[in-house]
Amino acid sequence: MNVVRIDDTKVTADVPAGAGAGVVAIRVEELVTLVRADLPNAFTYQILALNSVTRAIGTDAGNDTLILVGTGFAPNATVAIGGAAALNVEVHSATCITCQTPVHAQGNVFVVVTSNGAPVQLPFDYL
Description:
The chain has strands at 3-7, 10-13, 22-29, 36-45, 49-54, 57-58, 65-71, 78-81, 84-85, 87-93, 96-100, 107-115, 118-126.
């Protein structure tokens, strides 16, 4: 694990992969003095999920606005629709993304959200 001391009151750390969704405690321990602090319920793991795509049908001309609802969306999450990058992607929160569809031939495709390297998807239809 990568831990960096910022100053006397702050550290940063890479969060290890969780076993699943849920709240966990964090322990911070100073190695020289062995002073430690236990912080119960200090971090919440969220499982990445895409639960719904509002407007599951769009036109082949693109520019249809989609609202993606799920869990675990990182601020830098990306969206692809039918293999093409979505337009105007905005991650509003860990549970909501909006975007616009790119131009695409008619047919059944997938909306794919990739967050921290992990993809999740739901079907979408271009008419």
